[in-house]
């Protein structure tokens, strides 16, 4: 078997092989080639596994993204996608060979992080990936969608304001405008880009994705209604993309640069007539919307993992992000898939870190996949210690690691790739 890079001439073969791996058929492309999720594939970052008889049997690819880290650092990250093996060649080492080839190639490009969305949770941990961001789906019955009166009040009965106080029913002086997806692509692109630059765990959406309609709504050009929120100066600062079918209003995604804009958008969709329920897809964990409803049980929640993270260069990755506490921690990191092992002294001062190899006794021993899970601050090291996956070598080590790896806000990723 040979694993080789692809060129533009291989695009059709790559797409056909990938769809066959999942038992599907490609959609018919539009005349301009847009509107299909694979229209943004980067053929110079794609791989084909070819059997001895010349038949393609596996695929893997990667996108060029920016990932927002704690501290609002923007770093390059390879978005692994299009991974599939024909049913006739599964459990023959094809996937393992492709994933190892890809990781080596990413390193050769100088990249120190890769990310993916896992179709199956059991597959990718063995390649060093760990779940790092999480999402909630919130389903609200329309007849239970009344908002509670905010209980936090300011001085002399004045409603509390500010990001720490939370939005008040009367504190939003902006406006909501209803548009169609075809009318507001530029607004969506601009608002999303502002949002993702301040949100740990968020990925960039390159302009070509929007231009090609590559992905799921609202990136794709599929018909959608879009509620656009504007601040008091008329500047767009949030949107909710949604559709209505069978009396259910489904919100593809809600983007807002502050809580007041999000609340205004939530009120808008929850006030929609002639629907029996509203489904909010991929809300951040611990989002306050359930608490804002008068009936706390009106919102039914289901949780899922979303972005998985893989560190390719531990010192570079740890020094790239920002930190919320000071301290020293010795991490003993095992990377069995690549056959590597390293021990690193992490020193954090004033929000910046230094990370160097060390012979000191470790504070924590962990797999590289577990380091990926805690990297963005969405999983606490102490949770993995309690689960039996990370070993703490001294009392207080897990608590110190929790304080160090904590992010200024929970990481969240909305982008589908």
Automatic annotation (TrEMBL):
<dbReference type="InterPro" id="IPR016181">
    <property type="entry name" value="Acyl_CoA_acyltransferase"/>
</dbReference>
<protein>
    <submittedName>
        <fullName>GNAT family N-acetyltransferase</fullName>
    </submittedName>
</protein>
<feature type="region of interest" description="Disordered">
    <location>
        <begin position="152"/>
        <end position="174"/>
    </location>
</feature>
<feature type="binding site">
    <location>
        <begin position="83"/>
        <end position="85"/>
    </location>
    <ligand>
        <name>acetyl-CoA</name>
    </ligand>
</feature>
<dbReference type="Pfam" id="PF13530">
    <property type="entry name" value="SCP2_2"/>
</dbReference>
<dbReference type="GO" id="GO:0034069">
    <property type="term" value="F:aminoglycoside N-acetyltransferase activity"/>
</dbReference>
<dbReference type="Pfam" id="PF17668">
    <property type="entry name" value="Acetyltransf_17"/>
</dbReference>
<dbReference type="Pfam" id="PF13527">
    <property type="entry name" value="Acetyltransf_9"/>
</dbReference>
<dbReference type="InterPro" id="IPR051554">
    <property type="entry name" value="Acetyltransferase_Eis"/>
</dbReference>
<dbReference type="InterPro" id="IPR036527">
    <property type="entry name" value="SCP2_sterol-bd_dom_sf"/>
</dbReference>
<keyword id="KW-0808">Transferase</keyword>
<feature type="active site" description="Proton donor">
    <location>
        <position position="124"/>
    </location>
</feature>
<feature type="active site" description="Proton acceptor; via carboxylate">
    <location>
        <position position="417"/>
    </location>
</feature>
<feature type="domain" description="N-acetyltransferase">
    <location>
        <begin position="1"/>
        <end position="146"/>
    </location>
</feature>
<dbReference type="InterPro" id="IPR025559">
    <property type="entry name" value="Eis_dom"/>
</dbReference>
<comment type="subunit">
    <text>Homohexamer; trimer of dimers.</text>
</comment>
<dbReference type="InterPro" id="IPR041380">
    <property type="entry name" value="Acetyltransf_17"/>
</dbReference>
<dbReference type="InterPro" id="IPR022902">
    <property type="entry name" value="NAcTrfase_Eis"/>
</dbReference>
<dbReference type="InterPro" id="IPR000182">
    <property type="entry name" value="GNAT_dom"/>
</dbReference>
<dbReference type="GO" id="GO:0030649">
    <property type="term" value="P:aminoglycoside antibiotic catabolic process"/>
</dbReference>
<feature type="binding site">
    <location>
        <begin position="91"/>
        <end position="96"/>
    </location>
    <ligand>
        <name>acetyl-CoA</name>
    </ligand>
</feature>
<comment type="similarity">
    <text>Belongs to the acetyltransferase Eis family.</text>
</comment>
<keyword id="KW-0012">Acyltransferase</keyword>
<feature type="binding site">
    <location>
        <begin position="119"/>
        <end position="120"/>
    </location>
    <ligand>
        <name>acetyl-CoA</name>
    </ligand>
</feature>
């Amino acid at each position: 078997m040979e694993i080789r890079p692809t060129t533009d001439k291989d695009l059709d073969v790559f797409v056909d092989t990938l769809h066959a791996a999942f038992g599907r058929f490609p959609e018919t492309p539009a005349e301009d080639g847009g509107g299909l999720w694979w229209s943004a594939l980067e053929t110079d970052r794609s791989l084909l596994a070819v059997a001895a008889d010349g038949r393609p049997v596996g695929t893997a690819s990667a996108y060029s993204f920016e990932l927002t880290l704690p501290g609002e650092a923007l770093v390059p990250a390879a978005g692994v996608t299009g991974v599939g093996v024909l049913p006739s060649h599964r459990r023959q080492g094809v996937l393992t060979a492709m994933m190892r080839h890809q990781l080596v190639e990413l390193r050769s490009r100088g990249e120190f992080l890769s990310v993916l969305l896992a179709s199956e949770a059991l597959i990718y941990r063995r390649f060093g990936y760990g779940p790092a961001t999480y999402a909630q789906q919130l389903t609200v019955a329309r007849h239970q969608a009344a908002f509670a009166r905010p209980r936090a009040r300011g001085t002399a009965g004045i409603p509390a304001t500010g990001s720490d106080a939370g939005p008040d029913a009367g504190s939003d002086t902006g406006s909501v405008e209803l548009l169609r997806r075809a009318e507001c692509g530029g607004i969506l692109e601009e608002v999303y880009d502002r949002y993702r630059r301040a949100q740990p765990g968020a990925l960039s959406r390159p302009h070509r994705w929007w231009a090609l309609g590559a992905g799921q709504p609202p990136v794709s050009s599929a018909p959608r209604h879009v509620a656009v929120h504007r601040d008091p100066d008329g500047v767009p600062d949030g949107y909710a993309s949604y559709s209505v079918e069978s009396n259910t209003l489904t919100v593809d995604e809600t983007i807002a640069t502050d809580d007041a804009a999000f609340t205004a958008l939530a009120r808008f969709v929850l006030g929609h007539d002639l629907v029996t329920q509203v489904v909010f897809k991929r809300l951040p964990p611990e989002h306050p919307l359930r608490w804002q409803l008068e009936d706390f049980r009106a919102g039914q929640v289901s949780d899922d993992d979303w972005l998985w993270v893989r560190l390719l260069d531990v010192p570079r990755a740890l020094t790239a992000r920002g930190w919320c506490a000071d301290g020293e921690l010795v991490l003993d990191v095992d990377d069995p898939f690549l056959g590597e092992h390293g021990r690193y002294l992490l020193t954090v001062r004033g929000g910046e870190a230094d990370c160097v190899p060390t012979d000191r006794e470790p504070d924590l021993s962990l797999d590289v996949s577990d380091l990926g899970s805690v990297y963005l601050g969405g999983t606490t090291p102490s949770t993995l210690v309690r689960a039996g996956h990370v070993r703490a070598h001294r009392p207080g080590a897990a608590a110190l690691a929790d304080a160090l790896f904590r992010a200024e806000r929970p990481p969240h990723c909305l982008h589908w790739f």
